[in-house]
Write a structure and sequence with these properties.
- The chain is of the alpha+beta class.
- It has two domains: 11-149, Aminopeptidase, CATH 3.40.630.30; 159-324, Gcn5-related N-acetyltransferase (GNAT) (Aminopeptidase, 3-Layer(aba) Sandwich).
- Helix content is 33%, strand content 24%.
- It is built from 15 helices and twelve strands.
- A twelve-stranded mixed sheet has the order 1-2-3-4-5-12-6-11-10-9-8-7, sandwiched between helices.
- Helix 11 (277-289) links the parallel strand 10 and strand 11.
- Helix 1 (20-29) packs antiparallel against helix 3 (42-51) and helix 5 (110-124) packs across helix 6.
- The longest helix is centred in the first third of the chain and has 15 residues, at 110-124.
- The radius of gyration is 33 Å and the shape is globular.
C-alpha cells in the first residue's frame, strides 16, 4: 500500500521575484474578485517591480528605509499563491504603517486568509504603533475584515475629478498668489506647522508626522526622479507664505502627465483660516496643466474639509469614489499577542531594575525608631516587682526629657 504524502501546511512568507507573475494575476487580472482592500496604483507598482528587479535586489542588501517600501508577503498553500498583502511605513519614524493592499482568491476563504495575513504583519512589524488603511465604502467584505481585526473609522475621503474643459475655464482667471514659493528642505518646519493645523487632533495623532517627514534626502530624491522618469511625469511643488505671521498657509503638489495617458494628480493643503486660497490654488494648478496634453485633474478631500468639497461642487467636479480611512492602535496588538498579555505581566518582573541589591544603610530616623531605649533610673524594677520597660508596659504618656 502506497504511503500517503504528508500534507503541506499553508505558510506566509516574504515576496520573491519568482512570484511576480502570480502576484500580477492576483492584483490585476483577478483584482475585482480577489481584492479585500484598497490600493491605488498597483499596476504601476508591478511594472516598476519588473523594470527595476535587479535594482531592488541590490537595495535589499542595505539597511535603509527604502527597502521597507517593498514589504510584500504572500500566503502559499501547496506551492500555490492564494493571497498577498502589501504594507509600507506611513511616516519617516515608521511609527505608523499602512495596509496598502490585501488580495485573496475567493476559493480559499477571504476572511480567514485575510485575517492571517493581517495578523502576520501586526505580529512581525513591531516598530509600528498605529496602523492605517483605506477602504472603499462599497467593499463590505473588506470593511468586515478590518473591523473584525480591530480597525476603527478615522475619516471619510472623497476623490474628485476636474474635467479638461473645467480646467481650461479655471485657467482663464489670474490667481492672486503674491508669495508663492518653491519648496525645499529649508521649508520643512513651515510645511509641518501647516500640516499640523489643517487636521483634527485625532488624525494628527494617528499620522504622527514630524519635520523630518517633509524633508527629502538624496537617495529618496534620486529614486523619485527615476520613478517619474519611467512614468513620464513632472512634479511641481509650491507653497504660499504669509509674511506677517511668517507661516505657510497653503501648499500644493501636482504630478503632471506629459502624454495624457494618465490624469494629473494633485495634493492640496490649506490652512483652515485661509479657505479663500482654494480658488486661487486650483486656478494656478489649472494654468500648469495647460502646457501639457488635455487630461483631467484628480484630487481628494476629507470630511473635515467642508470648504474644499463645497468649492469642488461649485465648479462642477465629478465625485469619483468615496473611501473610509480606518486606524488601529498598538494596544489591540498587545492584547491579541500570545507572547505578551497584561495578565502575564508581573510587577516584580517589570521593576527588577528598581530592586535593591543589598540591605539599605539605616538612617538616623530609622535608628531612633528601632533602638531599644535604656532603663531610666526611676523606672528600674524593684525587688520582686515587674519590669517597667516602656516596650513591656508603658504607664506614662511620654518619655522623660532626657530622651
Amino acid at each position: 500500500m502506497a504511503s500517503l504524502a504528508p500534507k503541506i501546511e499553508p505558510r506566509i512568507r516574504p515576496l520573491q521575484y519568482r512570484d511576480l507573475e502570480a502576484i500580477k494575476r492576483l492584483l490585476v487580472e483577478e483584482h475585482d474578485l480577489a481584492c479585500v482592500g484598497t490600493y491605488y496604483g498597483h499596476e504601476q507598482h508591478l511594472d516598476q517591480l519588473h523594470r527595476w528587479s535587479e535594482l531592488l535586489k541590490l537595495l535589499r542588501l542595505f539597511p535603509h528605509q527604502l527597502s521597507d517600501q517593498l514589504r510584500t508577503y504572500v500566503w502559499e498553500q501547496e506551492h500555490q499563491l492564494a493571497g498577498v498583502v502589501q504594507v509600507s511605513p506611513f511616516n519617516h519614524s515608521r511609527s505608523t504603517w499602512r495596509f496598502d493592499q490585501i488580495s485573496v482568491l475567493p476559493a480559499y476563504g477571504q476572511q480567514e486568509v485575510g485575517t492571517q495575513l493581517l495578523r502576520y504583519c501586526l505580529e512581525n512589524i513591531w516598530e509600528a504603533r498605529t496602523w492605517l488603511t483605506e477602504i472603499e465604502v462599497n467593499q463590505t467584505s473588506a470593511l468586515a475584515l478590518y473591523r473584525h481585526n480591530g480597525f476603527q473609522p478615522l475619516a471619510h475621503i472623497t476623490y474628485w475629478s476636474v474635467a479638461p474643459e473645467q480646467l481650461s475655464q479655471l485657467a482663464t482667471r489670474e490667481p492672486v498668489l503674491p508669495n508663492l514659493l518653491p519648496v525645499n528642505n529649508a521649508d520643512a518646519s513651515l510645511l509641518y506647522q501647516l500640516d499640523t493645523a489643517s487636521m483634527p487632533p485625532l488624525v494628527r495623532q494617528v499620522f504622527d508626522r514630524h519635520i523630518q517627514d517633509f524633508k527629502a534626502n538624496l537617495v529618496e530624491t534620486l529614486l523619485s526622479g527615476i520613478q517619474l522618469w519611467g512614468q513620464t511625469q513632472e512634479l511641481v511643488r509650491a507653497y504660499v507664505f504669509e509674511p506677517q505671521r511668517k507661516a505657510a498657509i497653503g501648499y500644493f503638489e501636482i504630478n503632471l502627465c506629459r502624454n495624457a495617458t494618465q490624469p494629473h494628480e494633485a495634493q492640496l493643503t490649506v490652512h483652515p483660516a485661509y479657505t479663500w486660497l482654494y480658488p486661487e490654488l486650483l486656478a494656478h494648478m489649472a494654468q500648469l496643466t495647460q502646457a501639457y496634453p488635455s487630461a483631467p485633474l484628480r484630487l481628494d478631500s476629507t470630511d473635515y474639509q467642508p470648504e474644499r468639497e463645497e468649492y469642488l461642487r461649485q465648479i462642477g467636479a465629478e465625485d469619483l469614489e468615496q473611501t473610509l480611512m480606518m486606524s488601529r492602535s498598538v494596544w489591540h496588538k498587545l492584547r491579541e499577542s500570545r507572547s505578551i498579555s497584561f495578565e502575564a505581566l508581573q510587577l516584580s518582573d517589570m521593576l527588577q531594575g528598581l530592586q535593591p541589591n543589598q540591605n539599605p544603610v539605616p538612617g538616623r530616623m530609622t535608628y531612633w525608631l528601632t533602638r531599644t531605649p535604656p532603663f531610666p533610673k526611676h523606672r528600674r524594677a524593684k525587688p520582686g516587682g515587674a519590669l517597667r520597660h516602656p516596650q513591656v508596659r508603658l504607664r506614662h504618656r511620654s518619655w522623660p526629657q532626657e530622651f
